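Standup notes
- DV: blocked on the single-chain target, sequence here:
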Amino acid sequence: MERDGVVLVLDFPARSTEPCAAPEALVQGLGKTPLEVRRAKSYVAIFAQQEDIVSIKPDMHWLSQLDGSGIIVTAPDDKVDFISRFFAPKPGIPEDPVTGSSHCSLIPYWAEKLSKKKLTALQLSAHGGEPFCEHVGERVKIGGNAVAYLTGEIEI
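- DV (later): unblocked, structure below
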């Protein structure tokens, strides 16, 4: 972990994705067919624009039939490099507000697609989040604004 002023930066392994066919449960669960589907630990459904992502009303019955840890939906954006949402119905998380693990797959994908290492992102959940992203070889750095809420000492 690094601190740069009010930005806390975490270092994670990059997770590459592989193209795959769109499972019927994914299409039914999202209510639309993605332009492209990729797979790592989670399914990654790529769409054309922000409206595609915002308008998704996930059907958890269908999405819970998929194997894997969750479903990431993503698209390029005009204000940031990419946007996303993350659904994890199997562990009981309909929509995660800001998901570091999904960005382990998203950062390498968008870094290659956009030919840049430093990226800005926006997760469009009700809570929302704006992670600062960087692709560093086999690693990704994910940062965000942090506010100290507790300080103290531990005696051993």
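- Follow-up: The first strand starts at residue 2 and ends at 4.
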